[in-house]
Amino acid sequence: MKLLMNLLKSPSFLLGAGLFFLTILFAVVGPLVYHIDLNTTAGSYLPPDSQFRLGTDNLGRDVIAMLISGLRSSLYVGFLAGTIATVVGTFLGVYAGFKGGWIDDIINLVTNLFLVIPTFVVLILISSSLKDGRSLTLIGLIIGMTTWTWSARAVRAQSASLKSRDHIALARINGAGTFTILVKHILPYIASYVFMVFILQVASGILSEASISMIGLGPYETVSLGTILNDAMRNEALGDGVWWAFMPATAIITMIVFALYVINTSMEGVFNPRLRK
Amino acid sequence: MFKNNPTLRYISHRAAWYFLTFLVAVTINFFLPRLGTANPVDIIMGKVGTGLDTEAAKDKEESYLKEFGLVEVNDQGELLRDEAGKPVKTSNIKQFGRYLVMCFQGDLGTSFLNYPKKVTEIIKDALPWTLALQIPTIIFGWIVGNLLGALAAYRRGVFDRIFFPVALAISSIPFFAFGMLLVYVFAINLGWFPAMGGYAGDLIPSFSLTFFKSAAYFYVLPFLSIFLILAGGQAIGMRSMGIYELGTDYIKCAKWFGIKENKVLMYLFRNAMLPQLTGLALSLGSMIGGALITEMIFSYPGLGMAILTAVQGNDYPLIQGCTLLVTVSVLIANFTVDILIGFLDPRVRAGNQMGGK
């Protein structure tokens, strides 16, 4: 509670949370107040006017409607990937850090292996082999399964440092099993840390989706912020100076990622008093 | 000999580890694309088979199957057939064995799209551009970012209050978004720099002054779009490391002794730099990935563009060749950073385990 109060006192946390809340609002309330119709088409690349406030895309679809549904998809992928990456990574990291020994060695080896092999490459390889049926869920799953290494590495170090604390030894004397110790006596200590990792994982999930969609390996027949950029790039929007085809989408992605980063750094500032001064 | 030389032992350890990683990467590179159902020959047949009658199409298909090593062949180079007259498919394991041998021989197969061009030839044309763009950008971005970050941590005050939010904002812009923005503002609107390509369209790559001038001119925007974001991100990391180090006893002690500010800053920089180097090693993969996408935005004639065209044309051998090469480059870059850490970190030289592992 006190932590939360401290967080709310930090202006940068308020800025980040506010920006993030705005994007969520745009995604959730948007479809309720704005009529979304991706099937009716007007002229291609119409500039913004009173009917289409942000113009139309290459197929003549309303850019605002595209943005709202694209943002929903991107947030979905981001949260799905972030959740998977955090859950898998936290579980493996906490377990490895606590157990030590050969289990730790093996998990550590696998983590480091997949940290070095670029995620981008793995994403390209999997996505390009799945030509049909690349749904948003599948993409989120793939991203989550390739980025858990970051959480695992971060959490492992924390867990390993907690292992030798007295309360763990006490719990052990009282006959608590490994699982109980992990859940009741280690996780609460690193919860804030895990949450920070989660925020970064969501941000990287959104970025990964955008990058993979941008090179044309994104979800099939679904609009996401990345596919909007891919359409714009493939249809010469950049060269023709059709800013409304790509600028709003990039602005939204940047805003979400910025908001999440600001939340992360402000939390770091609150949890690590040395940075505060 | 290794016992007496911890640095050498450290390096050979790392080399063995990276070799293992390389083997895993090659395995992933081979098996992941085969998860899906798409048969590469069907795809290429769709391109070359049009206009041929069934008999001719079948002949052609079989010659492709043979060429890409997807079917069994006897000693005379003829296809082995089962009872129904269909060619016998090579098992995945056997294909993998062949793939490994080919990889070590430096043969990455033949491109589908640019048949009969070899994948290695395409990569050989693209690689110099990517290296020329990424190596200087990453090195300069790292150095400049860290210097600025250390300065911000040391000075705090107004400089930090302006610098930190700006760096944070810049570093959270995705590479591609920043690239697009730069193209839109400086190339399309202002017309100061060219929007796409690596050199003027009427030139042929050669070692002449005009060509270098043109290449340098086209270099500015892609360079800036990667450099600024990278420097921003490094600066933020260095700033928090620096603030952390400033609170430590050895810095306080140095200050109390009245050691000159510049010298204290040097102590600070040296100690805060090592975690930053480790951080660089860890994020090289995503940096290079992001920079490849930047190449796509600028239609820069490097690996990024090769990947993009390969993906768009379902050119599996080229995709696999590029991804393998990117992975290997990341591994080499990582190894280099690890060696650098080995030389810079006295703990490693003393034979201890690396801090934090």
- How large a portion of the residues of chain A is in β-strands, by DSSP E? under 5%
Oligomer: heterodimer
The portion of residues forming beta strands of chain B comes to under 5%
User: How large is the count of helical segments of chain B?
Assistant: 13
Structural class of chain A: mainly alpha
Rounded average pLDDT of chain A = 81
How many extended strands of chain B? 0
Explain the overall architecture.
The complex is a heterodimer of chains A (277) and B (357). Chain A is mainly α and 277 residues long. Chain A contains 11 helices and no strands. In chain A, helix 8 (178-214) runs parallel beside helix 9 (225-234). The relative contact order of chain A is 0.16. The mean pLDDT of chain A is 81. With 357 residues, chain B is an all-alpha fold. Helices cover 71% and strands 0% of the residues of chain B. Chain B starts with 5 loop residues before the first helix and ends in an 8-residue tail after the last helix. The interface between A and B is large, with 48 and 61 residues.
Label this structure with key terms.
heterodimer, A: 277 residues, mainly alpha, 0% strand, elongated, B: 357 residues, 13 helices, globular, disordered C terminus
Question: Briefly, what is this?
Answer:
The complex is a heterodimer of chains A (277) and B (357). Chain A has 277 residues and is mainly alpha-helical.
Write the layout of secondary structure elements.
The complex is a heterodimer of chains A (277) and B (357).
Chain A: H1 2-9, H2 11-33, H3 63-99, H4 101-116, H5 119-129, H6 136-162, H7 166-173, H8 178-214, H9 225-234, H10 237-240, H11 243-271
Chain B: H1 6-31, H2 40-48, H3 54-67, H4 92-104, H5 119-155, H6 157-171, H7 175-189, H8 209-246, H9 249-256, H10 261-297, H11 303-312, H12 316-344, H13 346-349
Helix pairs in contact in B: 1-4, 1-12, 5-6, 5-8, 5-10, 5-11, 5-12, 6-8, 7-8, 7-10, 8-10, 10-11, 10-12, 11-12
